[in-house]
Specification:
By secondary structure, the chain is mostly helical. It has 7 helices and no strands.
Length: 189
């Protein structure tokens, strides 16, 4: 029992990154399930999306609570989140679940942040910390995405509007932080 007591804290360090990698591995499964069920009611794809959303919250909570934050997790988690949204919204437009004009602002925000993050990390000027409001925006949008998949649009659209507005707002905050970080840190030689 003592061995287990000593191993558990050591093993928990790997749980957040394992959840993130599991979420990434779910992407092709999501595409296959949604493609198989679309444009009808895609219950299985929605359940997978909601499970991925909860696992995203869980990995962040575990990482903070057990001091298991890693550099890999800080880079990988937001990239997997963006990959999930870009994949889901790409499938939505392809299968006609949502119009392109409703998807464009959210996808545009993600593309802008991916480019800004790559430039910031590539220049070795630091990183922009994840905002809690950004996590909540992602959570609300993911739930709206699931409701679109099952055809419950009277819930999906209001959630999408609220989540999308919060998502764009946090995108502006990230861009402001990006420019502050670029100005604050001298370039590495």
């Amino acid at each position: 029992m003592r061995l287990f007591g000593r191993l558990l804290p050591e093993m928990i360090r790997y749980v957040p990154n394992a959840l993130t990698l599991f979420r990434f591995a779910c992407l092709p499964v999501f595409v296959w399930i949604y493609g198989w069920q679309a444009p009808g009611f895609a219950w299985k794809a929605a359940l997978l999306m909601w499970f991925a959303t909860w696992s995203d919250l869980a990995d962040g909570y575990i990482a903070r609570k057990y001091n298991a934050v890693t550099r890999l997790g800080q880079v990988l988690d937001p990239l997997v989140d963006r990959a999930f949204f870009l994949t889901a919204f790409g499938a939505y437009v392809y299968y006609g679940t949502m119009p392109w004009w409703a998807v464009a602002p959210v996808v545009g925000r993600d593309v802008l942040l991916i480019v800004a993050s790559a430039v910031l990390v590539g220049s070795r000027r630091g990183e922009v910390q994840v905002l809690r409001s950004g996590k909540w925006a992602t959570f609300v949008l993911a739930w709206s995405v699931g409701f679109f998949m099952i055809g419950v649009r009277f819930i999906a659209w209001p959630l999408y509007i609220v989540g999308g507005a919060l998502y764009l707002y946090t995108g502006c905050l990230y861009v402001m932080r990006y420019f502050r970080a670029r100005r604050a840190r001298p370039a590495a030689v």
